[in-house]
Structure to design on (923 residues):
């Protein structure tokens, strides 16, 4: 019989069309919308799409929920600011090259955190990441290299054209997003990604089948710190001034978790969808709703609504509905052609569910 | 006949309860070896110890002469000892095929495995072949969580075979499986045995055990009471005593069951 | 030197007892429901604000006000359990419970900040401002009264858990929910009441916290991370462990604050957590597994 494949599905035409048009829209967006307020919202949206993707790439796939990734965001931001200041680097597009450096430093921090935190059980892990986050924030407030509560000033490229000032940041964020999605797309299709998912389902059993769970967990944790650290550096460069509570922000992890859950945890597209929608709304509210308290309340209520009414998120829910429709259609096609090589998953499950029902009775 | 798996003097306690109390016996190469005994006699605990999921308090286990006690479940599996669980443990949110590929991971160096895509180098074909062998190839694309209990047992057996283990430890393979499937299962086990695999099976279904086993070990109160051919076990008076004389130990037995269940469910 | 040491230890023990009360509620909820109530911190602050409203606007004494605030917080806890937690699915329950209660926490934080504003408040009464003089140490009365209140309430909690029919059901549910259900215990009811009790203690904890520390809605973040640290160190689900860890951690903090620097005292709090977990992943007083399932 033809060998069906779970992972290496040929990239469907519909999916390819979506990806190509998304890239096109992202590429031309700042050329059409030139209002700096709009491009700034877009920069944040891209940045949070990338960081949600990274959060999901660890938490969503391993089942270990982290509420401490904001620590890596802050480490990235401070790395950027400290290096730029200490070496008196000229304010210009060359500073974008510090982003990967900040990402690597964030990874080093993640190694240290992971070595302790990942030794514990899942629920303890969540709590420890909260504690670790506060340790980093406290360090930000109390170390001399971070200048404590007075924060650090980051060089601002004043010589850039005011009208297109945001564009370099925008494209840097777009490249960060492209890199992050590409990274997780590859991981999802690798054996490493499969090992990670097996840990989510049954860690002890995965260990018993020879999966090196400790190494897989730690690597995934450390890898996810890289895009987050880079985003922190970009944030510092964009804002121009960083404080312990703006870069070590406890709401970041909640945002990433919410974006991931809304879009669909464990999927590639979910965090992107959740990120673009929620971060745009968030930034818009930030601009036009001056009251931070109402914003907090709205945020919490939306979060609860999502968790109770759409716990699987938009992407899986919609995806299933689409597959069901397509399944019904291709089932008739398959029976007409009587060749099952390219059977759509929906059709396959439809047919074999009957088998399950038959054999299910004890 | 050569000894493949030697269990000597294994002791294991949970709190104050002795689950294994100097358990000693030998599994010879090429056998289908049954492990029976009343509830709480320590069968599942012994399986946990044999496969590295738990460390014994005393005693050791040798696989072809090498001590494998306390090296962890992953290493035991790599050395060629695969096991199934009484309550199956498949990866419910992964597809059936992905479940198969997980069990193939250990054969590769870690870094290479991270970079390659799963199912390369004939693994996918092998997985499909094995799924076909146990009769669930047509379910390859389904989420394992949607399989029936019996199908999960077959999947668990199939994914172990991905690693081509020398010894298979089956924990109640026939429990909760419908009667027609049981006969199929017995045939599959015999077929695997004919292909050179040694099989150790815990089972309550006596008909099943007597039908397929070459040797049977009877466990009682954490010890191996006797090891013999099925016909001899059937007529041995001590076996009946072990099963009937359990009243005085009933409390203890229940405690053991709870302990075993906890140990099994610990990571969930 | 020695005086400073004793003073720090006394401080630690007295304030530790109040943390013990708040942490006991948190760990009790976890023990029975496997729910980590991240909103516990803001609930403590809510308790403090309730006492504030009663004392400032209605002139009710802080301790007398507890007769009102404890039942109010109890009902709120039952409401959270019934309205939200009981509707969670079993999959990833612990993680989901953290996210849900986190959402509850930020809603409450937003609401409290909206109502009371960002300025710091502190509860006042004669016993907050006056000190008693014992063996050469000045102790503000509120610390002593707070300690006594914590001891009385923890005693009551102990009585409920170990001397009442409800306590038996609760402990059964704590050990094995399925088995408890099978022997006829109404686990949903037990869960609701447990959540109520776990939250009710924040009324008392919040009152003493608000009288000894100035607070605003943002104080909850620091508070909850301390409480979580304490229950992990104590071994999740163990009430005795939570009490021991509370006192121990606050004594350590007071000592660091006295002999080194108050700035780093909080950091030491988390540093102890990290070090302990590196050595003993199950916590300081934790069994290998407090609950198997």
């Amino acid at each position: 019989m033809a060998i069906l494949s779970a992972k290496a599905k040929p990239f469907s035409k519909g999916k390819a069309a979506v990806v190509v048009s998304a890239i096109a829209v992202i590429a031309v967006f700042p050329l059409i919308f030139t209002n700096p307020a709009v491009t700034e919202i877009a920069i944040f949206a891209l940045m949070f799409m990338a960081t949600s993707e990274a959060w999901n790439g660890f938490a969503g796939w391993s089942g270990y929920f982290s509420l401490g990734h904001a620590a890596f965001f802050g480490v990235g931001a401070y790395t950027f600011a400290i290096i730029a200041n200490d070496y008196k680097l000229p304010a210009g597009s060359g500073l974008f090259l510090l982003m990967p450096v900040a990402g690597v430093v964030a990874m080093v921090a993640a190694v240290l955190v992971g070595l302790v935190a990942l030794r514990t059980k899942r629920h303890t892990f969540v709590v420890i990441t909260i504690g670790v986050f506060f340790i980093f924030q406290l360090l930000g407030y109390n170390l001399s290299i971070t200048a404590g509560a007075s924060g650090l000033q980051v060089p601002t490229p004043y010589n850039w054209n005011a009208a297109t000032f945001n564009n370099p940041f925008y494209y840097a964020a777009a490249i960060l997003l492209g890199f992050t999605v590409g990274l997780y797309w590859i991981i999802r299709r690798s054996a490493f990604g499969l090992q990670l998912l097996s840990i989510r389902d049954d860690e002890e059993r995965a260990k018993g089948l020879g999966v090196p769970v400790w190494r897989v967990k730690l690597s995934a944790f450390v890898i996810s710190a890289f895009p987050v650290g880079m985003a922190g550096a970009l944030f510092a460069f964009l804002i121009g001034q960083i404080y312990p509570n703006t870069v070590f922000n406890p709401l970041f992890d909640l945002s990433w978790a919410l974006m991931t859950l809304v879009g669909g945890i464990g999927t590639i597209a979910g965090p992107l969808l959740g990120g673009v929608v929620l971060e745009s709304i968030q930034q818009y509210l930030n601009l036009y709703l001056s009251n931070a308290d109402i914003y907090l309340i709205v945020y919490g209520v939306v979060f609860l609504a999502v968790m109770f009414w759409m716990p699987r998120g938009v992407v899986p829910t919609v995806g299933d509905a689409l597959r069901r429709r397509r399944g019904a259609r291709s089932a008739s096609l398959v029976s007409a052609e009587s060749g099952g090589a390219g059977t759509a998953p929906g059709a396959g499950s439809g047919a074999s569910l009957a088998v399950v029902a038959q054999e299910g009775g004890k | 006949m050569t000894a493949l798996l030697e269990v000597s003097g294994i002791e294991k306690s949970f709190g104050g309860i002795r689950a294994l109390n100097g358990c000693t016996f030998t599994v010879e190469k090429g056998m289908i070896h049954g492990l029976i005994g009343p509830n709480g006699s320590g069968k599942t605990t012994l399986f946990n110890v044999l496969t590295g999921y738990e460390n014994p308090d005393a005693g050791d286990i040798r696989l072809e002469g090498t001590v494998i006690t306390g090296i962890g479940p992953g290493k035991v599996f790599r050395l060629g000892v695969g096991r199934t669980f009484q309550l199956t443990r498949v990866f419910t949110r992964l597809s059936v095929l992905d479940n198969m590929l997980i069990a193939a991971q250990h054969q590769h160096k870690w870094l290479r495995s991270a970079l390659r895509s799963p199912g390369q180098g004939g693994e996918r074909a092998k997985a499909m072949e094995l799924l076909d062998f146990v009769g669930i190839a047509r379910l390859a694309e389904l989420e394992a969580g949607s399989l029936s209990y019996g199908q999960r047992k077959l999947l668990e057996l199939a994914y172990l075979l991905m690693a081509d283990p020398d010894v298979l430890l089956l924990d109640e393979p026939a429990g909760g499986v419908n009667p027609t499937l049981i006969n199929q299962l017995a045939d599959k086990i015999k077929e695997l045995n004919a292909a050179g695999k040694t099989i150790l099976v815990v089972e309550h279904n006596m008909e099943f055990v007597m039908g397929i086993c070459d040797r049977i070990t009877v466990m009682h109160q954490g010890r191996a009471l006797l090891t013999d051919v099925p016909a001899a076990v059937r007529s041995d008076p001590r076996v009946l005593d072990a099963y009937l004389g359990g009243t005085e130990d009933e409390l203890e037995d229940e405690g053991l069951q709870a302990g075993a269940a906890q140990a099994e469910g610990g990571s969930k | 030197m020695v005086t400073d040491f004793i003073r720090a230890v006394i401080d630690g023990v007295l304030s530790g007892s109040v943390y013990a009360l708040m942490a006991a509620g948190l760990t009790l909820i976890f023990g029975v429901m496997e729910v980590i109530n991240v909103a516990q911190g803001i609930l403590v602050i809510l308790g403090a604000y309730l006492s504030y409203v009663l004392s400032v606007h209605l002139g009710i004494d802080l301790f007398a006000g507890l007769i009102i605030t404890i039942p109010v917080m109890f009902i709120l806890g039952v409401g959270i359990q019934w309205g939200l937690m009981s509707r969670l699915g079993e999959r990833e329950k612990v993680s989901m419970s953290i996210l849900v209660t986190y959402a509850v926490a930020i809603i409450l934080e937003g609401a409290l900040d909206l109502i009371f504003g960002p300025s710091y408040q502190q509860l006042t009464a004669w016993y907050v401002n006056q000190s008693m003089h014992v063996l050469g140490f000045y102790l503000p009365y509120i610390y002593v009264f707070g300690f006594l209140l914590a001891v009385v309430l923890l005693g009551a909690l102990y009585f409920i858990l170990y001397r009442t029919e409800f306590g038996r059901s609760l402990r059964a549910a704590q050990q094995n929910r399925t088995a408890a259900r099978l022997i006829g215990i109404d686990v949903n009811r037990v869960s609701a009441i447990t959540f109520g009790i776990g939250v009710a203690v924040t009324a008392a904890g919040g009152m003493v916290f608000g009288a000894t520390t100035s607070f605003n809605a943002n104080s909850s973040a620091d508070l909850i991370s301390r409480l979580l640290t304490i229950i992990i160190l104590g071994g999740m689900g163990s009430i005795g462990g939570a009490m021991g860890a509370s006192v121990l951690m606050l004594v350590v903090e007071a000592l660091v604050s006295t002999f080194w620097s108050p700035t780093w005292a909080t950091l030491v709090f988390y540093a102890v957590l990290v070090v302990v977990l590196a050595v003993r992943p199950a916590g300081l007083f934790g069994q290998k597994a407090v609950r198997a399932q």
In short: Chain A touches chain B at residues 1, 3-8, 189-192, 194-195, 197-198, 200-212, 215, 219, 266, 345, 348-349, 351-353, 355-356, 359-362 (CB under 8 Å). The beta strands of chain A are 152-153, 241-242.
